[in-house]
Design brief:
Elements: H1 2-33, H2 35-44, H3 53-115, H4 122-154, E1 162-165, H5 166-182, E2 187-193, E3 197-200, H6 202-219, E4 225-233, E5 236-243, H7 277-287, E6 291-295, E7 304-310
Parallel strand pairs: 2-4
Antiparallel strand pairs: 1-3, 4-5, 5-7, 6-7
Helix pairs in contact: 1-3, 2-3, 3-4, 4-7, 5-6, 6-7
């Protein structure tokens, strides 16, 4: 449906371009045919010029003006198409986030109704309470992602960076978040081989890993592995999250960090997520002075996201 919605706009601009080009050609033909008249007109208005100069000068000015008009039309076409694509992405985002919020809200309502039943066993009551807390946290994460994306977009106050010992941080993080990741059907495997301290924000690192691991678990097959690695490499420390899922098409690799962008799939299924996670990861990594790269090979399962963070300078004793 998208091409049909864009067709009238493209047709209008193509017709405008053709009309401008036709006018430019007509202008050149007219000036060439009227060269003698142009020279006479120049003499009447007092333009001192050698023979043959006046009509070339008039034609050059006209061609320049028409060229500027052509450039303006092309620029406006590019801007209009970009705005149209952005609006389509916004519509998809609203649809996706509405879908993402409806699922936990429905679950919370169901378990709240369960808690309201008389004579409910204590074990069932505790299970429903835990489920409500989990789904409420899921909603909170969605809202936090939207707010974080808004902060990155308008470039509000940056991160407060501090010295973070990465190995203890990752140990505490994986112990706390392993159950959440594995509840999505993927096994979390860690390989931490770093002694480095980085200049970062613990909250930002937490959000970066949350989004990368959630993304990996979402696209992994049931029972698959999500691997989290860390190692030192020169003056940087690398964090890598890898899955064994469907991978990323080569045409999408350069766009996966765009806001609202989601990897295109031809399986006919509904896309999950809001299209903000990897965009937020990219913005936070850049604010911490690092880089992130996406890797995937055609015909091979899985995708890798590698974060490079600069190590903090040693503190003098």
């Amino acid at each position: 449906m998208r091409p049909k919605r864009s067709l009238p706009l493209i047709v209008i601009f193509i017709l405008s371009l053709l009309a401008t080009i036709a006018l430019l050609v007509a202008w050149v033909i007219y000036i060439v045919r009227s060269s003698t008249r142009m020279e006479q007109l120049g003499e009447r208005v007092g333009i001192a010029a050698t023979e043959g100069n006046v009509h070339w000068w008039i034609m050059g000015v006209g061609c320049l003006l028409f060229t500027l008009v052509l450039g303006g039309i092309i620029y406006q076409l590019a801007q209009a198409l970009a705005a149209r694509r952005y609006l389509v992405k916004q519509d998809e985002f609203i649809s996706n986030i509405t879908h993402e919020m409806k699922s936990p809200l429905a679950a919370i309502r169901l378990h709240a109704q369960t808690l309201d039943q008389p004579g409910l066993a204590e074990e069932d009551r505790q299970r429903s309470t835990r489920f409500i807390v989990q789904q409420a946290q899921r909603l909170s994460d969605l809202v936090d992602n939207v707010l974080e994306q808004s902060r990155l977009l308008v470039r509000r106050k940056g991160l407060d960076l501090e010295r973070v010992e990465l190995a203890p941080f990752l140990d505490a993080y994986t112990r706390r978040e392993r159950q959440r990741v594995e509840s999505r059907g993927a096994q979390l495997v860690t390989d931490v081989d770093t002694t480095a301290t980085v200049l970062a924000s613990e909250d930002a690192l937490h959000r970066v890993l949350d989004n990368l691991l959630d993304n990996a678990a979402r696209f992994s097959d049931p029972g698959g592995e999500v691997r989290l690695r860390a190692w030192d490499e020169g003056g940087t420390t690398c964090l890598e999250v890898q899955d064994d899922g469907i991978g990323i098409p080569g045409s999408d690799l350069k766009r996966v960090f765009e806001r609202f962008y989601q990897v295109g799939r031809d399986d006919g299924g509904r896309r999950t997520g809001t299209g903000l996670g990897l965009s937020i990861v990219y913005g936070l990594v850049r604010e911490m002075g690092g880089e992130i790269h996406a890797h995937s090979q055609e015909g091979r399962p899985g995708a890798r996201f590698t974060v490079h963070l600069p190590q903090a300078p040693e503190v003098a004793a």
